[in-house]
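INTERNAL TRANSFER SHEET
From: sequence group
To: structure group
Subject: TauD/TfdA-like domain-containing protein

Please process the attached sequence and return the structure record in the designated field. Keep the field labels unchanged so the import script can parse them.
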Amino acid sequence: MGSVPDSSALPAPSQLRVAPLKRGSSIDHLEYVDVSPIIGREYPTASLKEILDAPNADEQLRDLAITICERGVVFFRRAQDDLSIDEQKYITDRLGQLTGRPKENGLHVHPLYNDPNNLPMANGKTDANIYVINSEAQKKLYATMKNRPTNTEPRDLGREWHSDSLFETCPSDFSFLRMESTPPAGGDTLWASGYEIYDRLSPPFRAFFETLTATCAQPVFKSACDAGDYPVMSPRGAPQNVDFEFQPVHPVVRTHPVTGWKSLFAGVGLHVSRINGVSSYEDQMLREYCLRLITRNHDCIARMHWTRGACAIWSNECTLHAATPDTHLVDGVRTGVRASGIGGVPYLDPASTGRREALGLPQY
Ligand SMILES: [Fe+2]
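Return from structure group:
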């Protein structure tokens, strides 16, 4: 099934700082369709509960994790109604554990977990490792944050693109979102392939981008906590994620620790505040260029039109994603529950290559 190239037939390059993982065949029996040649895979009928209950559950989860890292994002379309919140958390954590994440790391705790607008789950409980995404609550929360646009300003959805927890020293590896209720229309989520965006840079631009770092400051957390008079959560999924400054420096191009492929990482997005070492004009120009690469190359994008109970699991180490805040147009509310793992400190391995080069594909 499927003819999209992957790493399963390739020898692993041995000179890399972290040896790439090779996918096995334990989930080859699952029906799937690739969303596009470049990014995304949808499983229309697969059950995550059945994967968990299988005698070789770890083998299947490891192969699923590697598939996610290669394809960027996977969708489970069948409503996963029999999966508990604890099982969702377990899967998110286990995907990272089985693919070499630092042993001391676990699930992310959102800094604003104490915010009163952080809604309880459908069962009435809250969980520090579960972020309830609700289109109505987010509107109220954003109103407390500085520098957020209001409804009176022109719409620019380009600002929605981000990679989860980039404001942490150790950002997210896997994120797992299950949609519990959907609006009559809208509320789609989009993922862009950081691998392919990197590959679309010319060789001189690649070399330049690889010299760059970005500061990923997110002062809105402090301002939201001050406005609400509640403490920032800490630690947040890794021993390094304890500070209240939220201004780590990350490489603009990183190496994915599971595939060994280079990806555009901290070049643009909601959590990127400054490309370092360049003038402010150059900073603005570089980030706008990265955004332009995403918005003008929609073949690098997989789009999820949510159905109730459907799930998406993605690798934040090679994708950016963006929500579509259009549910107010149909008077609808979108509610989902998200768990995110925390990976290692991002790095660029000079011995790594782009995805196209690694797979023997022609340059774009
Ligand atoms: Fe996100």
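Handover comment: Residues 162, 164, 321 surround fe (ii) ion (CB under 6 Å). The chain has a mean pLDDT of 92.
Transfer complete.
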